[in-house]
Model the fold of this input.
Amino acid sequence: MSELYPWQQGNWRQLQAYIQQQRVPQALLFSGLAGQGKRQLSERYAQSLLCQAPLADASACGTCVGCHLFAAQTHPDFLLIEPDEAGKVIGIDKIRQLIVKLALKPQYDAAYRVVIIQPADSMNTASANAFLKCLEEPTERTCLLLISEQPGRLPATIRSRCQKIDCATPAKPLAMTWLQQQGVGDSAELLLNLAQGAPLLAKRYAEQNMLALRQQYFQGWLQLADGKGNLLALAEQWQKQDSVDLAAVLQWMASWVSDIVKCASHADAKLMANPDMKNALQALAERLELKRLYRFYDNVLLTKSQLNTQLNKQLMIEQLLISWSQLNRQ
Done:
């Protein structure tokens, strides 16, 4: 059975109640930041719905045929819909194939049929419109589980037909305790800040030595501020880097700019997202004009929001770095 994390107890009680009260929603939307275990939570719920002998608390037994098939990823009544490649869309062909499969009855009469769609917001307009038919004309004993980090990108017609499971960021003390139990050392708090409070993402950052990679990106960014380095080569390097997602890089950049503003306002270092970079950020704060810095911050957020569009990522990063270079020359 998928692991249930300490911060998911409230969400799990909500899901248990659906099963125990025999009021299982036709569609659920699991939303929240990356790195909080939305997929694991949805899979745990899916296994409970597919279990042939659930326990008194609605958890899966782990020993029946249904549980064994689920664990082996061969359960005929469990369907996973996701893009062929990370960052790609879920096209209409996948949704059409889903509609055909849902037209058939579940193979096990006593249980549900469960569909997980992740990320649900990666459906394009055509596939989202086609999927709407699944919600408007529900099939027997079918439960649709949508997972999204950006539910606002889903059409309102889909969101309004789903019950909401809000996977909120856990309290910092709870997340810190869990990270320390996982063996993440003195850098746990900094990693958690970089992961925007998401414990699983912070743990993955620790495993990937992300602090060292972040420092490399920061040094390249500082070199541009000092009029050094090859701007175009840096943009190409960032765009082609496989070990760090561009969205994460832009989130780091946004946090650097935010910390520069805090330094200019003489804010407490404890409020900074990057306290280990305080000296360099303080030096930038002393020479940059805040109004222009605010505009650059808006550009960073806009660029981040456009990463999943058809715009050329290379050009987007180049334009952003050009703006940063010009900002430091004014």
Q: What stands out?
A: The mean pLDDT is 91. The longest helix spans residues 246-264. The CA atoms of residues 221 and 321 lie 8 Å apart. Strands lie at 27-31, 78-81, 113-117, 142-148, 163-166.
